[in-house]
């Protein structure tokens, strides 16, 4: 015996607890009297009936519970053969690609509206086979009869009037004959043809083919696109198509020939409208000649026996109702208080806060991720990315390890506390000497500190008077000093004070600039970041030049996030020298000559014509050449 819905068997767990409680209660009642009275005297001393009748309601409840759960679980033990039926309808859609379809009396154009209508037809063609033909002077196969309408829908947007390889007037009769041959080769006995056009073309020939199709068991419906007011037909070289007198040709919809054509084919005539109401009318029910045939396939279907168990419950329910047991149950259900609402989102049921935060981190919402992260390493990474360097430093306070010291050094450097950053990088290298990122940032910080140290000798006052003679690596405090400001007696003290103030200002300005730079750039791990404005010359590195300073948490979120790409994204956030595919690293590693070659290659790629309809154009041309006998 099998169960169709085995999870319902979990509802037997409360029943097992109920039986266990009854057994414990009966044992406890018996044990009390057994301890006080001899067993052979106990039947004569007990007054009244035993507790067995009082247990009958609970026993009936247990039996009813068991039967109900088994019925809901769906017990089956017999297979029944079930024949398989399939809809074997064949539908051919004929799209007119004559130049008049470019008229814009229907916005954006008649052809665009026709494509929308065909997409609606394909959307409702969930069963059977469907084919798509395009025609103007000749018919062309876009897709033969297939059960996969999606493959046809992918080609519809590329259908334009310039795909037709030969000019000439539209031949609706040839298109109908070609569609009839296609249905005949497929063995269709009652196919459906839907003509999407704005003109009947050669009406006499089209009517003759429509009657022939109806006599063969097929059906022709017409979906007209256009308006009676009409619109000019755009010309290929610009302007509009003109008639023999030089007047602009107006393409107007004449519904009578198309309506007559639909009557001859035994189908319907509809005009295109916004929405899918017209296409649903065309594809409604059996009016399209659909046939449901029994195939040779046989499917097995289980016969469910659960409803028979419900018949056993009916006497129990009647007994419970007569004894008044159902009334308290119904009353209890009615007076139960409503369940209080809780502010729990759907994602809270399936993802822990760290997993939700990692999702926000991968999406770029680092501030929300910092609030949700409970893991301190990831919280530090999120705060660092959001520009809260002090918060990142606080989150790292309770962590140890080489990666933690490296991340702590990055945060200290961003805050302008370069001396402490040097110590943090050195501690990271002591624990992991092979950490190239820490060594790289350590060198940058040391260079910055060397440039900010005061010179050993007093600079020449004449050099201070002439700003043009100052070196590129001098401290900003020397640039701020005006000529003649220093006195020969207290020049050293004033210079020391100026240097101290300049260094403090440099740290503050540097920290602010780095924060702005960090906030404006979502990826701080690129090696080609432009240095933020600082107090020293731009040729020297500062904290914003740390090419590999993104925080790297030692552990990643749980594996379920890998399926959504969150964990992978966070791993990409860990910069290293082994990532040549990072945009910034690639740009910085290119020489001027290589960059010029890359730009030239991109320019050549932009010159490649983007022609998604090229395959259809070549296919139509090959069909035309084969039809003329110029190709085998």
UniProtKB/TrEMBL annotation:
Transmembrane spans = 54-73
What single Pfam family name could you report for this chain, choosing any that match?
A: TPR_11
TPR repeats: from-to residues: 402-435
| Compositionally biased spans, kind Basic and acidic residues | 534-552, 593-610
Coiled-coil blocks: none
Positions with biased composition (Polar residues)? 509-532
Keywords assigned: Membrane, TPR repeat, Transmembrane, Transmembrane helix
Q: According to the UniProt entry, which residue ranges have a biased composition of type Acidic residues? A: 483-496
By its UniProt entry, which Gene3D superfamilies does this protein fall under?
Answer: Tetratricopeptide repeat domain (1.25.40.10), von Willebrand factor, type A domain (3.40.50.410)
- Disordered: annotated segments: 450-614
Write the protein's name.
Ca-activated chloride channel family protein
Name the source's superkingdom.
Bacteria
SMART domains associated with the record: TPR (SM00028), VWA (SM00327)
The UniProt record lists the VWFA domain at: 90-292
């Amino acid at each position: 015996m099998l169960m169709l819905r085995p999870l319902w068997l979990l509802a037997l767990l409360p029943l097992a607890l109920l039986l266990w409680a009854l057994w414990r209660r009966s044992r406890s009642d018996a044990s009390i009297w057994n301890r006080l009275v001899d067993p052979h005297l106990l039947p004569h001393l007990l007054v009244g009936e035993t507790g067995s009748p009082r247990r009958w309601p609970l026993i009936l409840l247990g039996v009813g519970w068991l039967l109900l759960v088994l019925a809901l679980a769906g017990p089956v033990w017999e297979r029944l053969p079930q024949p398989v039926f399939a809809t074997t309808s064949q539908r051919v859609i004929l799209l007119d690609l004559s130049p008049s379809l470019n008229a814009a009396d229907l916005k954006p154009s008649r052809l665009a509206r026709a494509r929308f209508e065909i997409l609606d037809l394909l959307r409702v063609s969930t069963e059977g086979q469907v084919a798509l033909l395009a025609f103007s002077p000749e018919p062309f196969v876009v897709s033969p009869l297939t059960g996969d309408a999606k493959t046809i829908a992918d080609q519809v947007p590329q259908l334009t009037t310039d795909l037709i390889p030969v000019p000439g007037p539209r031949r609706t009769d040839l298109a109908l004959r070609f569609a009839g041959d296609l249905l005949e080769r497929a063995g269709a006995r009652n196919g459906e043809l839907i003509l999407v056009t704005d003109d009947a073309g050669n009406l006499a020939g089209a009517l003759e083919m429509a009657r022939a199709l109806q006599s063969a068991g097929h059906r022709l419906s017409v979906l007209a696109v256009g308006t009676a007011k009409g619109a000019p037909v755009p010309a290929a070289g610009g302007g509009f198509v003109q008639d023999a007198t030089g007047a602009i040709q107006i393409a107007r919809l004449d519904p009578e020939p198309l309506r007559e054509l639909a009557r001859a084919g035994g189908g319907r005539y509809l005009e295109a409208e916004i929405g899918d109401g017209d296409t649903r009318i065309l594809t409604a029910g059996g009016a399209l000649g659909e046939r449901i045939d029994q195939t040779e396939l046989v499917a097995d279907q289980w016969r469910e026996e659960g409803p028979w168990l419900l018949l056993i419950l009916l006497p129990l329910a009647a007994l419970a109702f007569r004894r008044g047991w159902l009334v308290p149950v119904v009353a209890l259900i009615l007076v139960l208080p409503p369940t209080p609402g809780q502010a729990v989102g759907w994602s809270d049921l399936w993802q822990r806060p760290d997993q939700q935060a990692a999702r926000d981190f991968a999406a770029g919402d680092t501030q929300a991720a910092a609030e949700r992260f409970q893991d301190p390493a990831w919280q530090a990474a999120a705060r660092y990315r959001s520009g809260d360097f002090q918060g990142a430093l606080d989150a790292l306070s309770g962590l140890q390890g080489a990666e933690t010291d490296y991340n702590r050094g990055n945060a200290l450097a961003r805050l302008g506390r370069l001396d402490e950053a040097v110590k943090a990088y050195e501690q990271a290298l002591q624990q992991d000497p092979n950490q190239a990122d820490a060594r790289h940032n350590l060198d940058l910080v040391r260079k910055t500190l060397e440039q900010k140290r005061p010179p050993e000798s007093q600079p020449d006052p004449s050099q201070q008077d002439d700003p043009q003679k100052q070196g590129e690596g001098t401290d900003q405090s020397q640039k701020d000093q005006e000529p003649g400001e220093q006195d020969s007696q207290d020049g050293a003290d004033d210079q020391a004070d100026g240097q101290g103030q300049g260094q403090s200002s440099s740290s503050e300005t540097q920290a602010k600039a780095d924060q702005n730079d960090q906030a404006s750039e979502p990826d701080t791990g690129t090696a080609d970041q432009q240095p933020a404005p600082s107090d020293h010359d731009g040729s020297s590195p500062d904290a914003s030049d740390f090419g590999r300073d993104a925080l790297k948490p030692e552990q990643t979120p749980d594996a379920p996030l890998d399926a959504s790409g969150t964990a992978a994204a966070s791993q990409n956030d860990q910069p290293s020298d082994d990532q040549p595919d990072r945009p910034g690293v690639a740009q910085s590693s290119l020489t001027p000559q290589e960059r010029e070659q890359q730009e030239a290659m991109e320019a050549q790629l932009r010159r490649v014509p983007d022609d998604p309809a090229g395959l259809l154009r070549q296919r139509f041309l090959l069909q035309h050449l084969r039809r003329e006998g110029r190709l085998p």
